[in-house]
Structure formats: C-alpha cells, structure tokens
Write the structure tokens for this entry.
Amino acid sequence: MPSILLSRARDYETEHLFDVPPAHLPRFHVTGGVGWINDPNGFSLYRDEYHLFFQYNPYDVYWDTMHWGHVKTRDFIRWERLPCALAPDKSYDEFGCFSGSALELRDGRHLLMYTGVSKTDDGQEFQTQCLAFGDGLDYEKYENNPVIGPELLPPGGSHVHFRDPKIWQEGEKFYVVTGNLSADDNGAVLLFESDDALNWRFVNTVAASENRLGRMWECPDLFRLDGKDVLIVSPQEMSTEGMEFLYGNTTLYLIGELSEDGKLLRESEHTIDYGLDFYAPQTVLTEDGRRVMIAWMQYWNSVDVRPVDDLPFFGQMTLPRELNVRDGRLIQNPVRELESYRSQHVAYADVPLNGKTAFHDVKGRCLDLTVDIRPDDNALYKSVTVCLAEGDGYAVTVSYDPEKGTVLVDRSRGGWPENVISRREFAVRDREGAITLRFILDRYSIELFVNEGEQAATFAIFSPEYADGISFGSEGDATITVEQYTLDI
Ligand code: FRU
C-alpha cells in the first residue's frame, strides 16, 4: 500500500502532469513535466527496459523534500512516465530520499538503494543508505533500513555528508560506492561490499579530493571500461585550475587501475563536461554491453533563476551518452539510437569560408548537426564561429581559436538573464586547425561533442523556438563541411 505521502505525490502528478502543453516540453530530454527535478537516480536495466528515477519535488519548481520520480524507455529517446516511486515517508528519510541507484536482482525484484536523510537531536542532518524492493512500478522500503549507517564509516567520516550510493553486482558479490566528506575536509569515495545487498562491510576509500579537487564529492560511479577503471564524481566547491577544472559544482572522471584492496591508482583526471549545465551523471550497462551515461542538465549555481517565468516544471536530463576510454580520456557520444530519428538530411561539403555565411536550409532547434572545420592549405585561420539558436537578438556562439587551442561557448544571448554566468572556454587537442563539432539541439538545450566525443560541453538555453537560425563565420580562410539532420521525435 502506498503511504499517504506517496499517494499524495501520485495524485498530484495525475492531476497536473498534463498541464504543460507538449510545445513547452523538451522533445527528447527527460523532464519532470511538473515540479522540480535534479540528479538522475536508479538508471538500470530491469526486465528488458531502462528505468530512470530522478530527484524530484512534484509540488513546486524549487528544490524541497526529495521524492523519486520515475520514467522508463527502450531506446533512451522516447520515455514513458511512471508514477512517483519513493516519498520521504519514514523516520529515517523524512527530510528526503536523496540520490541513489538500482539493479535487477536475480530473483526478479528491482532493488533501489538511496540515501535517507533524517535529523539528529541537535537538528543536524544525518545521512544513511537505505533499500527498497519493487517490480518496476511499486516499491516497498526494506524493514531493516538503514543498511549502511555511521558505524560503517571510516574514522572521521562525516555522517552529515554521506550519500549517493551507486550499487552493482559482480558474480555473487554486491558492491557500492558512496560520496563522503572525510575528517580532513576532503571529498572521498567509499567502497563497501556485501554478499546479500543487506549486510555491508567497509572496504576502502577509493579516491579523495586531496585538498585540490573540490570538497564534498557527490554522486560517484565506478566501472570498468575498455580495460581501465573509471571513477566519476561531482565535486562541490571546485576551484578553477587552468582551463581543465572549472569553478563551482562540476564533474570529474579519474581513470586508472583499482588495486586489490579497492584504491584507485590514478593515471589521468579530467572534467567530464566543459559546459555549464551538467551535474551528477550516472551510468548503466546496456543489454549489448555499452556503458551509457545520463546527467542532470543544469548548473546548481543558477538554480534560483527562472529564465522562463511560466514554465510549470524545472530541470531536465542530458541525452544519454555512450562512453569509451581512449588514451586516458573518456570518450562521449550521443546514444546511437538517436540516429533512427534522423530525417531531412542536408549537407554542404568543402565550402570555403571567410567572413559570415549561412545556408538557407541549415536551421532549426531539434537537430543533429555536425560541422567539420579545416584550415586552408596556405595559412591558419584566426577563428571560426558557429552561431546557433539565432534570431531576434538571440544567439549562442561557439568559437574555435586554433592558435590558442580553445573553444569558447557563449550563451549570454541564449535566453538567460544577464547576471547568470554564460561563458565557458576550454582547451582542445591540437589537430593543426582541424576540428569537428557535433551539436545536438532540443528546445531547451545544446549539447556539443568535440572531435568525435573527446570532449563534451552542455548548455541549457531558453530563447524562444523561433530563434532557430544557424550561421558560420571566420577570420581568415577555412573550409567547412556541414551535415544536418532534423530529429523527428
Ligand atoms: C547532487 C545532490 C546529491 C544529493 C541530491 C539531493 O546534486 O546534492 O548529493 O543526494 O543532490 O537532491
């Protein structure tokens, strides 16, 4: 039987979910449809479908006591809405069912693992890891929750910042990584193991921020890919470091080898997404063995701004991305399922560019667009700029400066108020002036994949949809090849 709080959330959804005309929703990016959403949770394969849950306040467009909303899909593009899965209805989670993960148990049940937030007698928040079992629709919280409490923390580990369990199974054993704040005020990822998913032991601290890579580390994920171990984290309070690490709440991947006792021996570390609106990514292993990642497409530092006043929902997810590891880098590309929604192919090959140019049929706000830029044989151009979502004073510009070796994205005319941070610049690999930029556009977003997925940069935008122009500009001689597909979703 759903609790009063869960029934209330479900009733509210039934009543208000379709208040939003489809013309105001992203076409293929997950949103709450009503209320507020943040982190993706419980991204898992269950009975041949991919389930995705999310941090969710159904009642308002601002963050408040967290529920878990629920959708599922077969192809990562079209999603079916399901009723709210978890409400904060127990003493150990009355201040929120925070982020977590899910897996299919061998007995056919769907297991959710999440952080329950309660308060100590002196009013401090207190976080523990809890379980719920279900059938893909309805979930029952485990009677002996919480299953990982402060007694399992390493010495000095914070019980106030102890959250976001990511669970997986290997053979007969279950493992989980969580975020934690350690005694020396560093972010850390803790590894636990279990024989039954109910009784857990602490194994080791997989990695820590080491007074450098932010403070509290949120939403970890750990997986093996292409012969390497990959740890993903979302650090809070990151400081800028060159052009690699960006200020604020950001995301990192650490690639290396996991030792026998569960420590990551790091070989490389990079930002996952160099854009502004990307946080708390989580991955799933697909039926055909692909590692697919989805993230919250929003920047914590701008969550108090409402660019479009009358939207009755706030927050969206990225397009799921396929991951690979190559040369110490995490390669990210849109899930291949997107390609079956491509229509209206338009291409312009080897067009000389000097100054500004546009093509009459290259435009739109629901597109898969690839721009291949090459230098002229004789001289290196100074810069090439792709201008998207253009019209009526609106525009988002993406400029490549081959001498500096950087890409600069500026969405200050992308529908956000002026006082919001809107520019990001990041270094890209030198390919002697050649660069490939693939853009995925939806009503409220631009996702950029550089050089076949070597780097990604994600931006939420809120300009009106009639701002659908695309143009190209260069200082100096360059050659561009443009390939555009409309996405028919
Ligand atoms: C990350 C986060 C998580 C937490 C959740 C609460 O965005 O702060 O650490 O579980 O959001 O909604």
In short: The chain has two domains: 4-337, 341-487.
